[in-house]
Amino acid sequence: MGVSRTDLFTSEQNELALVAKAFAHPARVAIIEYLIQANQCINSDLVEELGLAQATISQHLKELKSVGLIKGTVEGTSMCYCIDPEIWQTVKNRLQGLMDSYDPTCC
């Protein structure tokens, strides 16, 4: 497989593509939904809620954290994760802008 030509696109396009990739797995969508509902959670709650192995949950959390959608803080021996509100709003605005730019009278 060839090298991706991300240099051909704007930083906003590349960032939105990375966020979209983070949403491209149903477990990550479920994690995001759970974090929105709970407004925070401890990692072990996700294991019980989703029924996935701890290692699997940790990998998905790492992916979501790497694009900035979530942030985590250490609380004792556990990690507490929540949605990063600033990044969430930025992503929401970019997606809304993309969706709103479509003119349905075009075709």
> In one word, what is the shape?
elongated
**Number of DSSP-assigned strands:** 3
**How are helices and strands ordered from N to C?**
HHEHHEEH
Mean pLDDT score: 89
Structural class determined from secondary elements? alpha+beta
Radius of gyration: 16 Å
Specify the helix fraction band: 55-70%
The order of strands across the largest sheet is 1-3-2
Q: How widely separated are the two ends?
A: 34 Å
Uncertain segments are none
Please, how many helices? 5
* Percentage of residues in DSSP E strands: 5-15%
The largest sheet, given as strand count, sense and whether it forms a barrel, is: 3 strands, antiparallel
Write the layout of secondary structure elements.
Blueprint: H1 11-22, H2 26-38, E1 41-42, H3 43-50, H4 54-66, E2 70-75, E3 78-83, H5 85-100
Antiparallel strand pairs: 1-3, 2-3
Explain this structure to me?
The chain is an alpha+beta fold. Helices cover 58% and strands 13% of the residues. A three-stranded antiparallel sheet has the order 1-3-2. A hairpin with a 2-residue loop joins strand 2 and strand 3. It is elongated. The mean pLDDT is 89.
A few lines on this structure:
The protein is an alpha+beta fold. It has helices at residues 11-22, 26-38, 43-50, 54-66, 85-100; strands at residues 41-42, 70-75, 78-83.
Write a concise keyword list for the protein shown above.
107 residues; single chain; alpha+beta; 5 helices; 3-stranded antiparallel beta sheet
